[in-house]
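Z., the sequence and structure:
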Amino acid sequence: MHVVIGNSTAVQAFQAGVQAVTTALNDLPAQLTPRLALAFCSGDLDAHEFYAGMRHLLGDWVPIVGGSAMGLCWADQCVTHGPCAAVVIMAGDDWEWQLATSQDIYRDPHLSGEVLAGQLPSLPDSRCLLLFFDSVRFAATPQQPPILIPAGPIIAGTHHPRLKHIPLFGAGLLGDGNFNLTWQFCGDGVSRHSASALQLAGQFQLASCIMHGCVPLSDRHFTVSDVFGPYLYKLDQQPIVPLFDQLTGGQQWRHLQHGPTGRPLPVTSLALARPLGSDPDEQQLVTRLMTGVLPDDTAVMLFEADLSKGQQVMLMRRDPVLMMQSAQDNTKRLLAQIKEAGQHGKLALYFDCGGRMSAISGSDGEEAEIVRDLCTAAGIPFLAIYTGVEIAPLQGTSYGLDWSGVLVILTQ
Protein backbone atom coordinates (compact mmCIF):
# COMPACT_ATOMS: atom_id res chain seq x y z
CA MET A 1 0.00 0.00 0.00
CA HIS A 2 1.27 3.43 -0.96
CA VAL A 3 -0.56 6.61 0.10
CA VAL A 4 -0.05 10.24 -0.91
CA ILE A 5 -2.06 13.28 0.15
CA GLY A 6 -2.63 16.55 -1.72
CA ASN A 7 -4.44 19.68 -0.64
CA SER A 8 -5.54 23.14 -1.72
CA THR A 9 -6.93 26.36 -0.31
CA ALA A 10 -7.76 27.81 -3.74
CA VAL A 11 -10.94 29.86 -3.88
CA GLN A 12 -11.95 28.54 -7.30
CA ALA A 13 -13.29 24.99 -6.89
CA PHE A 14 -12.09 23.49 -10.19
CA GLN A 15 -8.61 24.84 -9.53
CA ALA A 16 -8.74 23.38 -6.00
CA GLY A 17 -9.46 19.95 -7.45
CA VAL A 18 -6.62 20.18 -9.93
CA GLN A 19 -4.20 21.53 -7.34
CA ALA A 20 -5.01 18.90 -4.70
CA VAL A 21 -4.58 16.01 -7.13
CA THR A 22 -1.42 17.51 -8.64
CA THR A 23 0.17 17.91 -5.21
CA ALA A 24 -0.61 14.29 -4.38
CA LEU A 25 0.55 12.85 -7.71
CA ASN A 26 3.85 14.69 -7.43
CA ASP A 27 4.65 12.42 -4.46
CA LEU A 28 3.46 9.20 -6.11
CA PRO A 29 6.23 7.02 -7.58
CA ALA A 30 6.01 6.90 -11.37
CA GLN A 31 5.58 3.13 -11.47
CA LEU A 32 2.40 3.26 -9.35
CA THR A 33 -1.10 3.97 -10.61
CA PRO A 34 -3.87 5.55 -8.46
CA ARG A 35 -6.52 2.99 -7.52
CA LEU A 36 -8.74 4.95 -5.13
CA ALA A 37 -9.19 8.56 -4.02
CA LEU A 38 -10.68 9.84 -0.76
CA ALA A 39 -11.58 13.50 -1.25
CA PHE A 40 -13.14 16.21 0.90
CA CYS A 41 -13.90 19.91 0.41
CA SER A 42 -15.44 22.61 2.56
CA GLY A 43 -18.86 24.08 1.90
CA ASP A 44 -17.18 27.23 0.58
CA LEU A 45 -16.33 25.32 -2.60
CA ASP A 46 -18.69 24.11 -5.31
CA ALA A 47 -18.52 20.33 -4.85
CA HIS A 48 -19.35 19.64 -8.51
CA GLU A 49 -16.56 21.90 -9.76
CA PHE A 50 -14.09 20.46 -7.28
CA TYR A 51 -15.00 16.96 -8.41
CA ALA A 52 -14.57 18.00 -12.07
CA GLY A 53 -11.10 19.36 -11.27
CA MET A 54 -10.07 16.04 -9.75
CA ARG A 55 -11.49 14.09 -12.68
CA HIS A 56 -9.48 16.30 -15.06
CA LEU A 57 -6.31 14.57 -13.81
CA LEU A 58 -7.54 11.25 -12.42
CA GLY A 59 -9.58 10.28 -15.46
CA ASP A 60 -12.91 8.48 -15.33
CA TRP A 61 -12.08 5.14 -13.74
CA VAL A 62 -10.51 5.99 -10.34
CA PRO A 63 -13.32 5.96 -7.74
CA ILE A 64 -13.58 9.18 -5.71
CA VAL A 65 -15.20 8.73 -2.29
CA GLY A 66 -15.82 11.40 0.36
CA GLY A 67 -17.66 14.72 0.29
CA SER A 68 -18.27 17.79 2.40
CA ALA A 69 -16.09 18.80 5.36
CA MET A 70 -16.42 21.60 7.92
CA GLY A 71 -12.65 21.96 7.70
CA LEU A 72 -9.49 19.98 7.09
CA CYS A 73 -6.09 19.50 8.70
CA TRP A 74 -3.04 18.12 6.89
CA ALA A 75 0.72 18.02 7.32
CA ASP A 76 1.43 21.75 7.35
CA GLN A 77 -1.93 23.48 7.76
CA CYS A 78 -5.19 23.29 9.71
CA VAL A 79 -8.07 25.11 7.98
CA THR A 80 -11.17 25.70 10.10
CA HIS A 81 -12.81 28.41 7.99
CA GLY A 82 -12.74 29.39 4.35
CA PRO A 83 -12.19 27.22 1.27
CA CYS A 84 -10.10 24.07 1.66
CA ALA A 85 -9.85 20.70 -0.04
CA ALA A 86 -7.78 17.53 0.22
CA VAL A 87 -7.43 14.24 -1.62
CA VAL A 88 -5.92 10.97 -0.41
CA ILE A 89 -4.68 8.81 -3.30
CA MET A 90 -4.11 5.13 -2.58
CA ALA A 91 -2.03 2.86 -4.80
CA GLY A 92 -0.34 -0.56 -4.70
CA ASP A 93 -1.44 -4.11 -5.43
CA ASP A 94 -1.45 -5.62 -1.93
CA TRP A 95 -4.91 -4.38 -0.99
CA GLU A 96 -8.43 -4.29 -2.46
CA TRP A 97 -11.56 -2.20 -2.16
CA GLN A 98 -15.30 -2.63 -2.64
CA LEU A 99 -17.67 0.35 -2.80
CA ALA A 100 -21.40 0.47 -2.05
CA THR A 101 -23.70 3.50 -2.40
CA SER A 102 -27.25 4.39 -1.40
CA GLN A 103 -29.48 7.36 -2.25
CA ASP A 104 -32.33 9.23 -0.49
CA ILE A 105 -31.13 8.00 2.88
CA TYR A 106 -33.45 10.40 4.76
CA ARG A 107 -36.47 8.25 3.75
CA ASP A 108 -35.33 5.23 5.77
CA PRO A 109 -31.75 5.36 7.10
CA HIS A 110 -31.83 1.73 8.30
CA LEU A 111 -32.99 0.48 4.91
CA SER A 112 -30.31 2.58 3.24
CA GLY A 113 -27.71 0.88 5.42
CA GLU A 114 -29.09 -2.51 4.43
CA VAL A 115 -28.80 -1.48 0.78
CA LEU A 116 -25.12 -0.73 1.39
CA ALA A 117 -24.55 -4.03 3.17
CA GLY A 118 -26.22 -5.93 0.35
CA GLN A 119 -23.65 -4.61 -2.11
CA LEU A 120 -20.63 -5.65 -0.05
CA PRO A 121 -19.04 -9.11 -0.16
CA SER A 122 -17.64 -11.02 2.81
CA LEU A 123 -13.98 -10.83 1.85
CA PRO A 124 -11.82 -13.13 4.03
CA ASP A 125 -9.09 -10.51 4.47
CA SER A 126 -11.37 -7.51 5.10
CA ARG A 127 -9.81 -5.04 7.53
CA CYS A 128 -12.36 -2.26 7.89
CA LEU A 129 -15.47 -0.54 6.58
CA LEU A 130 -15.55 3.24 6.09
CA LEU A 131 -19.06 4.73 6.10
CA PHE A 132 -19.76 8.27 4.93
CA PHE A 133 -23.23 9.81 4.87
CA ASP A 134 -24.86 13.24 4.69
CA SER A 135 -25.63 14.42 8.23
CA VAL A 136 -28.27 17.03 7.36
CA ARG A 137 -31.84 16.28 6.32
CA PHE A 138 -33.17 19.84 6.66
CA ALA A 139 -30.79 22.77 7.02
CA ALA A 140 -30.92 25.05 10.05
CA THR A 141 -32.92 28.27 9.87
CA PRO A 142 -32.95 31.34 12.15
CA GLN A 143 -36.17 29.94 13.65
CA GLN A 144 -35.22 26.30 14.27
CA PRO A 145 -32.22 24.00 14.64
CA PRO A 146 -31.27 21.59 11.85
CA ILE A 147 -33.00 18.27 11.36
CA LEU A 148 -30.29 15.64 11.13
CA ILE A 149 -30.16 12.16 9.67
CA PRO A 150 -29.55 9.85 12.64
CA ALA A 151 -26.37 7.80 12.54
CA GLY A 152 -27.67 4.85 14.56
CA PRO A 153 -30.10 3.36 12.01
CA ILE A 154 -27.78 3.66 9.02
CA ILE A 155 -24.89 2.16 11.02
CA ALA A 156 -27.11 -0.72 12.19
CA GLY A 157 -28.24 -1.42 8.63
CA THR A 158 -24.74 -1.25 7.20
CA HIS A 159 -23.17 -3.40 9.90
CA HIS A 160 -25.17 -6.43 8.84
CA PRO A 161 -24.47 -9.64 10.83
CA ARG A 162 -22.64 -10.95 7.77
CA LEU A 163 -20.23 -7.98 8.08
CA LYS A 164 -20.25 -7.63 11.87
CA HIS A 165 -16.72 -8.99 12.23
CA ILE A 166 -15.34 -6.05 10.23
CA PRO A 167 -14.74 -2.88 12.32
CA LEU A 168 -16.84 0.03 11.04
CA PHE A 169 -15.53 3.61 11.08
CA GLY A 170 -16.49 6.79 9.28
CA ALA A 171 -18.44 10.01 9.63
CA GLY A 172 -21.62 11.92 9.09
CA LEU A 173 -20.44 14.73 6.82
CA LEU A 174 -21.00 18.48 7.23
CA GLY A 175 -19.90 21.29 4.96
CA ASP A 176 -20.03 24.17 7.44
CA GLY A 177 -20.88 25.12 11.00
CA ASN A 178 -24.30 26.45 10.01
CA PHE A 179 -25.58 22.95 9.14
CA ASN A 180 -26.38 23.67 5.54
CA LEU A 181 -27.05 20.73 3.21
CA THR A 182 -24.01 18.68 2.27
CA TRP A 183 -22.61 16.87 -0.78
CA GLN A 184 -21.01 13.50 -1.19
CA PHE A 185 -18.66 11.87 -3.70
CA CYS A 186 -20.01 8.40 -4.39
CA GLY A 187 -17.34 6.87 -6.56
CA ASP A 188 -18.43 8.10 -9.98
CA GLY A 189 -20.41 11.26 -9.23
CA VAL A 190 -21.63 13.92 -6.81
CA SER A 191 -24.90 13.47 -4.94
CA ARG A 192 -26.91 14.69 -1.95
CA HIS A 193 -28.75 12.75 0.77
CA SER A 194 -26.56 9.78 0.01
CA ALA A 195 -24.26 7.31 1.73
CA SER A 196 -21.17 5.36 0.74
CA ALA A 197 -19.59 2.33 2.37
CA LEU A 198 -16.02 1.47 1.44
CA GLN A 199 -14.69 -1.99 2.30
CA LEU A 200 -10.90 -2.25 2.49
CA ALA A 201 -9.10 -5.59 2.48
CA GLY A 202 -5.57 -6.83 2.02
CA GLN A 203 -2.13 -7.04 3.55
CA PHE A 204 -2.42 -4.34 6.19
CA GLN A 205 -3.57 -3.99 9.78
CA LEU A 206 -5.69 -1.41 11.54
CA ALA A 207 -5.25 0.53 14.79
CA SER A 208 -7.65 3.07 16.26
CA CYS A 209 -8.58 5.13 19.31
CA ILE A 210 -11.23 7.61 20.40
CA MET A 211 -10.61 11.09 21.85
CA HIS A 212 -13.26 12.62 24.08
CA GLY A 213 -13.05 15.65 26.34
CA CYS A 214 -16.12 15.96 28.56
CA VAL A 215 -16.18 16.00 32.35
CA PRO A 216 -19.11 14.77 34.49
CA LEU A 217 -20.97 17.49 36.37
CA SER A 218 -21.35 14.91 39.15
CA ASP A 219 -20.97 11.18 39.79
CA ARG A 220 -24.73 10.83 39.69
CA HIS A 221 -26.26 8.53 37.08
CA PHE A 222 -29.71 9.44 35.78
CA THR A 223 -32.39 7.17 34.34
CA VAL A 224 -34.08 8.23 31.11
CA SER A 225 -37.78 8.31 31.99
CA ASP A 226 -39.41 10.22 29.11
CA VAL A 227 -37.96 10.42 25.60
CA PHE A 228 -39.38 10.53 22.10
CA GLY A 229 -36.95 10.36 19.19
CA PRO A 230 -34.41 13.19 19.61
CA TYR A 231 -36.54 14.94 22.28
CA LEU A 232 -35.61 14.18 25.88
CA TYR A 233 -38.25 15.30 28.38
CA LYS A 234 -37.42 13.76 31.74
CA LEU A 235 -34.60 12.17 33.72
CA ASP A 236 -35.44 10.40 37.00
CA GLN A 237 -39.07 11.45 36.42
CA GLN A 238 -38.02 15.12 36.66
CA PRO A 239 -38.60 17.65 33.84
CA ILE A 240 -35.22 17.96 32.21
CA VAL A 241 -34.90 21.70 31.61
CA PRO A 242 -35.50 22.88 35.22
CA LEU A 243 -33.39 19.90 36.38
CA PHE A 244 -30.45 21.14 34.34
CA ASP A 245 -31.07 24.69 35.59
CA GLN A 246 -30.74 23.36 39.13
CA LEU A 247 -27.66 21.22 38.45
CA THR A 248 -25.78 23.97 36.61
CA GLY A 249 -26.86 26.83 38.88
CA GLY A 250 -28.69 28.86 36.25
CA GLN A 251 -30.06 29.05 32.73
CA GLN A 252 -26.87 29.94 30.90
CA TRP A 253 -26.48 26.40 29.56
CA ARG A 254 -29.69 26.87 27.53
CA HIS A 255 -28.22 29.61 25.38
CA LEU A 256 -26.31 28.58 22.32
CA GLN A 257 -22.79 29.88 21.92
CA HIS A 258 -21.99 32.20 19.04
CA GLY A 259 -19.38 31.67 16.38
CA PRO A 260 -16.96 34.15 14.79
CA THR A 261 -19.73 35.53 12.53
CA GLY A 262 -22.01 36.18 15.47
CA ARG A 263 -24.48 33.50 14.45
CA PRO A 264 -25.56 31.01 17.13
CA LEU A 265 -23.87 27.63 16.96
CA PRO A 266 -26.25 24.66 17.03
CA VAL A 267 -24.84 23.11 20.21
CA THR A 268 -25.04 23.78 23.93
CA SER A 269 -22.22 23.39 26.43
CA LEU A 270 -23.79 20.27 27.95
CA ALA A 271 -23.85 16.68 26.78
CA LEU A 272 -25.14 13.32 27.95
CA ALA A 273 -22.95 10.24 28.09
CA ARG A 274 -24.16 6.65 28.12
CA PRO A 275 -21.60 4.39 29.85
CA LEU A 276 -21.17 1.02 28.16
CA GLY A 277 -19.71 -0.53 31.29
CA SER A 278 -18.96 0.09 34.96
CA ASP A 279 -15.48 1.44 34.15
CA PRO A 280 -15.58 5.26 33.71
CA ASP A 281 -12.93 5.01 30.95
CA GLU A 282 -13.70 7.63 28.29
CA GLN A 283 -13.11 4.97 25.64
CA GLN A 284 -16.37 3.35 26.83
CA LEU A 285 -18.66 6.39 26.69
CA VAL A 286 -21.19 7.18 23.98
CA THR A 287 -21.63 10.95 24.14
CA ARG A 288 -24.65 12.90 22.88
CA LEU A 289 -24.61 16.65 22.32
CA MET A 290 -27.70 18.80 22.74
CA THR A 291 -28.77 21.01 19.84
CA GLY A 292 -30.99 23.23 22.00
CA VAL A 293 -34.12 23.55 24.08
CA LEU A 294 -37.69 23.44 22.78
CA PRO A 295 -39.38 26.89 22.81
CA ASP A 296 -41.74 25.85 25.61
CA ASP A 297 -38.84 24.53 27.75
CA THR A 298 -40.34 21.03 27.89
CA ALA A 299 -37.43 19.12 26.34
CA VAL A 300 -33.87 19.24 25.06
CA MET A 301 -33.06 18.16 21.52
CA LEU A 302 -30.27 15.64 20.95
CA PHE A 303 -28.03 15.02 17.95
CA GLU A 304 -29.07 11.38 17.88
CA ALA A 305 -32.46 9.79 18.50
CA ASP A 306 -31.06 6.69 20.17
CA LEU A 307 -31.80 7.08 23.88
CA SER A 308 -34.50 4.83 25.27
CA LYS A 309 -36.51 4.71 28.47
CA GLY A 310 -34.66 3.06 31.35
CA GLN A 311 -31.13 3.75 30.09
CA GLN A 312 -28.53 5.20 32.46
CA VAL A 313 -26.84 8.46 31.46
CA MET A 314 -24.40 10.94 32.95
CA LEU A 315 -24.58 14.72 32.59
CA MET A 316 -21.38 16.07 31.06
CA ARG A 317 -19.89 19.48 30.31
CA ARG A 318 -17.51 19.96 27.41
CA ASP A 319 -13.98 20.70 28.67
CA PRO A 320 -11.50 22.16 26.13
CA VAL A 321 -8.47 21.46 28.35
CA LEU A 322 -9.41 17.82 28.81
CA MET A 323 -10.10 17.58 25.07
CA MET A 324 -6.54 18.63 24.25
CA GLN A 325 -5.06 16.26 26.84
CA SER A 326 -7.16 13.37 25.58
CA ALA A 327 -5.95 13.94 22.02
CA GLN A 328 -2.33 13.91 23.10
CA ASP A 329 -2.50 10.97 25.50
CA ASN A 330 -4.55 8.67 23.27
CA THR A 331 -2.53 9.41 20.13
CA LYS A 332 0.76 8.75 21.91
CA ARG A 333 -0.60 5.52 23.32
CA LEU A 334 -1.81 4.31 19.93
CA LEU A 335 1.46 5.14 18.18
CA ALA A 336 3.39 3.31 20.89
CA GLN A 337 1.21 0.23 20.36
CA ILE A 338 1.86 0.35 16.60
CA LYS A 339 5.62 0.64 17.15
CA GLU A 340 5.64 -2.17 19.71
CA ALA A 341 3.86 -4.43 17.20
CA GLY A 342 6.61 -3.78 14.66
CA GLN A 343 4.20 -2.02 12.31
CA HIS A 344 4.52 1.27 10.43
CA GLY A 345 1.62 3.58 9.71
CA LYS A 346 0.68 3.98 6.03
CA LEU A 347 -2.27 6.36 6.48
CA ALA A 348 -3.84 8.19 9.43
CA LEU A 349 -7.43 9.41 9.06
CA TYR A 350 -8.82 11.55 11.87
CA PHE A 351 -12.60 12.04 11.94
CA ASP A 352 -12.89 15.06 14.21
CA CYS A 353 -16.10 16.67 15.43
CA GLY A 354 -16.46 20.20 14.05
CA GLY A 355 -17.43 21.31 17.55
CA ARG A 356 -13.85 20.64 18.65
CA MET A 357 -12.56 23.52 16.52
CA SER A 358 -11.13 26.24 18.74
CA ALA A 359 -13.64 28.80 17.43
CA ILE A 360 -16.47 26.64 18.79
CA SER A 361 -14.93 24.79 21.74
CA GLY A 362 -12.94 27.73 23.09
CA SER A 363 -9.76 25.67 23.21
CA ASP A 364 -6.32 27.24 23.08
CA GLY A 365 -5.33 26.04 19.62
CA GLU A 366 -6.59 23.25 17.38
CA GLU A 367 -6.54 19.81 18.99
CA ALA A 368 -6.34 18.19 15.52
CA GLU A 369 -2.87 19.73 15.24
CA ILE A 370 -1.78 17.71 18.28
CA VAL A 371 -2.84 14.48 16.60
CA ARG A 372 -1.33 15.59 13.29
CA ASP A 373 2.03 16.55 14.73
CA LEU A 374 2.39 13.22 16.52
CA CYS A 375 1.39 11.22 13.43
CA THR A 376 3.59 13.14 11.00
CA ALA A 377 6.53 12.90 13.41
CA ALA A 378 6.05 9.13 13.16
CA GLY A 379 6.20 9.40 9.37
CA ILE A 380 2.51 8.68 8.76
CA PRO A 381 0.58 10.56 6.02
CA PHE A 382 -2.21 12.37 7.87
CA LEU A 383 -5.56 13.95 7.10
CA ALA A 384 -8.16 15.20 9.59
CA ILE A 385 -11.73 15.81 8.44
CA TYR A 386 -13.98 17.97 10.60
CA THR A 387 -17.32 16.19 10.70
CA GLY A 388 -20.79 16.19 12.23
CA VAL A 389 -20.78 12.62 13.58
CA GLU A 390 -17.83 10.32 14.15
CA ILE A 391 -18.22 6.54 13.89
CA ALA A 392 -16.15 4.01 15.82
CA PRO A 393 -16.54 0.54 17.33
CA LEU A 394 -17.02 0.17 21.08
CA GLN A 395 -17.23 -3.31 22.62
CA GLY A 396 -17.83 -4.89 19.24
CA THR A 397 -20.59 -2.52 18.09
CA SER A 398 -20.08 0.66 16.09
CA TYR A 399 -21.69 3.89 17.29
CA GLY A 400 -22.09 7.40 16.01
CA LEU A 401 -20.34 9.67 18.51
CA ASP A 402 -20.64 13.39 19.32
CA TRP A 403 -17.84 15.82 20.19
CA SER A 404 -15.26 13.11 19.73
CA GLY A 405 -12.23 12.44 17.59
CA VAL A 406 -11.74 9.02 15.97
CA LEU A 407 -8.22 8.23 14.78
CA VAL A 408 -7.84 5.32 12.35
CA ILE A 409 -4.35 4.24 11.21
CA LEU A 410 -3.70 1.69 8.50
CA THR A 411 -0.42 -0.11 9.22
CA GLN A 412 1.94 -2.61 7.63
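The chain is about 20% helix and 40% strand. Residues 214-318 form one domain.

Let me know what you think.
H.
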